[in-house]
Every structure is written in C-alpha cells, then in structure tokens.
Amino acid sequence: MDSSQASIWQSHSMKFLEMAFRTDRQERLRQADGYGKKSGDCGDTVEFFLQLRDGRITHLAYMLDGCIHTNACANTLITLAEGKQLEHAWEIKPEDVAAYLETLPDDHFHCAELAIGAFYLALADTRRTQQAPWMKAYR
C-alpha cells in the first residue's frame, strides 16, 4: 500500500470510508418517479433515480462516473433522503452531506454540491411526473 492509500484510511472517519466504498445502491431504476443527472466542472457525473409511495421517498439509487468523494456524497445523500416526505427532501443541503461524512476534504466540497444538484433535479422531475404521469412511460 502506498502512502496516499494509507492516508485515505488514516485521515477519514468510518462514516466517510463506509460511504466512499459502498456500491450496493448503484443501479438504474426502471420506471423511476424522478430522475436527475448532473456533471461537475471536475468531470464527475452523478445520476439519481427516485421512487415514491404516498409522497415519501421509498427508494433512491444512483449511477456514478466519478471519484470516491462523489461516491461518498451520493451514498450519504441517499442515507439522508430515504424515508423523507418529498417536500422535506428539498431541505437537504451540501453542508448536511459534509457534516454527516465528518472528514470530507474542503477541496472536495464540490462533490457534495454535485450530488445535491443532481438530487434536486430528480426532485424537480418527480414534481413534473406527478403533474403529467404519462411522462413516466417515456423515460
């Protein structure tokens, strides 16, 4: 193990490490109620797929082309959002993601902003789908 790999394990919280290396939530949901995709200036891209039941987020999945910091932020966002009422999900901020992770480096705060941005796009898409349910069949 080189020194940069060793420093990852030594300089991050257990929450960060768990979220950074978790991959079980990566999937494309067919018939998602909401979808959002965003690319950052850093080159990372994250997509969120959202399912609702009775106005509550019951399932949230993502696909990622990016770094472990963005992966940690995407997983954290899911942890914070699943089970919330749709209107309360809008209250989740990049600062909440960073606070949960405890050791997100300042120079990677944009990863939290990227994840939140893609999530907000999925929330907005969910609203459009609720207003025009026929759109869901054409994803």
Which SSEs are present, and which pair or pack?
Blueprint: H1 3-11, H2 14-21, E1 34-39, E2 45-53, E3 56-65, H3 68-81, H4 86-89, H5 94-101, H6 109-131
Antiparallel strand pairs: 1-2, 2-3
Produce a short descriptive summary:
The protein has 139 residues and is α+β, with helices and mostly antiparallel strands. The chain contains 6 helices and 3 strands. The protein has a single domain, classed as Alpha-Beta Complex (Sufe protein. Chain: A), CATH 3.90.1010.
Q: Oligomerization state of this entry?
A: single chain
Low-confidence stretches: none
Per CATH, the class reads Alpha Beta
Radius of gyration: 15 Å
- What is the distance, rounded to the nearest whole angstrom, between the alpha carbons of the first and last residues? 44 Å
Structural class from helices and strands? alpha+beta
Helix-residue proportion: 40-55%
Examine the coordinates and then state which fold CATH places here, giving the name of the CATH topology: Sufe protein. Chain: A
* Side-by-side strand order of the widest sheet: 1-2-3
In round numbers, the mean pLDDT is 92
Please provide the count of β strands: 3
**Count, helices:** 6
**Bulk shape:** elongated
CATH architecture: Alpha-Beta Complex
Question: Which percent band covers the strand fraction?
Answer: 15-25%
The tally of domains stands at 1
